[in-house]
Amino acid sequence: MPGGGVFILGSALCGLSQNMIQLIIFRALQGLGSGAVLPITITIIGDIFSFEERARMQGLFSSVWGVSAIIGPALGGVIVDFLDWRWIFYINLPIGLVSIVMLLLFLKEEKAAQRPRVDYAGAAALATGITLLLLALLQGGTTFPWGSPYILGLLALATLALVVFCRIETRVSEPMLPFSLFREKIIGLSLLANFLIGAVMIGASTYVPMFVQGVMGGSAVNAGAALAPMSIGWPLGSTICGRLLLRVGYRKMTTLGMVFQVLSIFMLLTLSPGTGQLFVSATSFVMGLGLGFCSTSLIVIVQSVVEWNRRGIATAAVQFMRTLGSTCGVAVSAVILNNVLLKATASLGMKSFSISTVNRLMDPVQRHLITPEQLANLKNALSIAIHSTFWLLMATALAGLATSFLLPRLAPRQKESNP
User: N or C: lower Cβ tally within 10 Å for the chain?
Assistant: First the structure.
């Protein structure tokens, strides 16, 4: 409930933001609340359902999460077009309040006698390291040269903060991210796979809408609609995986999901300005199938091999790695996009180009103010840049596929009991 309260507060403050600095700070607060809620909900499912029921219920939960994750951006496009961007955050308030009321009314739980110790130092060191690394990646090669003292300083400080984080995690009694989890082959592979699918998911969710708007000339609604079929494929894949997982096995289900992801990215690589909306939607559907299979099988395998008293931290680690993959994925892909875009526009003779010029392609009103020749050059350059990020997604998905081959068919089960 505290996590839900922080999320609601952060959402309200985001809607009230008056500038970008405020929005970034309040988004961080919103993310703090969200980060507390998601692992707990998945852990609850692992605790209250038996091993045989868990795969089916995690499949159902994953499908709900998948639908929400994809409908959100689509709904956001509609809200931006017809209302105001602030309502993207205000819409969370009634939903969050209803969720808290339902928890108060229906969730009955036993509390552990020993109060846990929160690893504040580790969390601060990790947040500092990741933030500095992202700043360096996003500003390097665009705002500042890669070899500038500013970028090199950010990278050095980020490295130092991450080294401090690693030292903290090896010394505290209850670390934020126990490195012992990575020493267990099954869990380590599952965490790595989650990192990779997080990068693929955020990459597709970010650059498919950008391609639809900037290259194909669609609106925000068209961009949201391009992702909507993913919200059909995801729950379908999750449901099928949940029902077949124990019979077919973890490896085959995860591998099938990775194959769908590779196939969908191959389809993305064929996109062009003349591609129809139906083909883009089909690509999103295939991507959703892959994410549904992978998200369900990977969470179930982790919850099945850890002891009851480590299930919460293991589940949190799964979500953490997926989120970290999304964060790193979007940062690295943004670096590639920006640098390729600058080179592509320079080769087309657009010497006065800046990254902010791309925003004009996303706005139907501003788009009509661009001359036909400039518009064609901008679309061509953006298409080249986005395809370079798709190649990064392909490499990431292939790495995920290779990881899935190393998973066991069925993992050893821990005793289903609690203190």
Answer: C
